[in-house]
Design a protein that fits this description.
Oligomer: single chain
Shape: globular
Structural class: alpha+beta
Strand order of the largest sheet: 2-3-1-4
Strand content: 15-25%
CATH architecture of the largest domain: 2-Layer Sandwich
Low-confidence stretches: none
Number of strands: 4
Length: 172
């Protein structure tokens, strides 16, 4: 498998973002801090007391993406890609996070991440599924570069087939 393409521009991006309050520092799954977030670095170990402190500090309860919110998020992502002439290769919206594989050409992946989050929030508000003033999304997100078609295929397989069973209310 080739590890790189020939022009220093990623073929696509694997973009992931989480619903607010669903993976806090100290969580049993581990976490990443801003000081320890280099690609491939180990997660911080679980710390129940730190996790409890972070949960107590939440201004709103953790956001769950139920079927209507997942549908609104998917519709917003599809609309964003259509309007911007981006190619959405794969998307899977779960109860606490969103995965997409998208070809955005020379655009910054930050633009895609922010557009997906903003338009998903707008769509949820229009459908009266999100009434809070703040965002339903955690700050930032992951924007992995996919350098070859093989990387795109592997990311699509992960997004489409390795996230667990379809959720109730999702399209087949």
């Amino acid at each position: 498998m080739r590890q790189w393409n020939d022009n220093d521009v990623p073929v696509a991006y694997f973009i992931t973002f989480r619903a607010r309050g669903t993976w806090l520092h100290g969580d049993k799954r581990g976490s990443v801090s801003r000081h320890r977030n280099a690609y491939g670095s180990p997660y911080l170990p679980p710390e129940p007391s730190w996790h409890a402190t972070n949960r107590a500090r939440l201004k709103v309860k953790p956001v769950k993406l139920e079927a209507d919110r997942r549908r609104a998020t998917l519709d917003a992502i599809k609309e964003t890609c259509e309007k911007r002439n981006w190619l959405l290769e794969a998307s899977n919206i779960r109860t606490n996070h969103v995965h997409t594989v998208v070809r955005i050409g020379l655009k910054s992946p930050d633009i895609a991440l922010n557009a997906f989050k903003a338009n998903a929030t707008r769509t949820m508000r229009e459908r009266r599924l999100w009434l809070d003033e703040g965002s339903p999304w955690a700050d930032k997100g992951s924007k992995r570069r996919l350098w070859t078609e093989e990387h795109v295929a592997a990311a699509c397989a992960y997004v489409l087939y390795e996230q667990g069973d379809p959720l109730p209310g999702d399209e087949a």
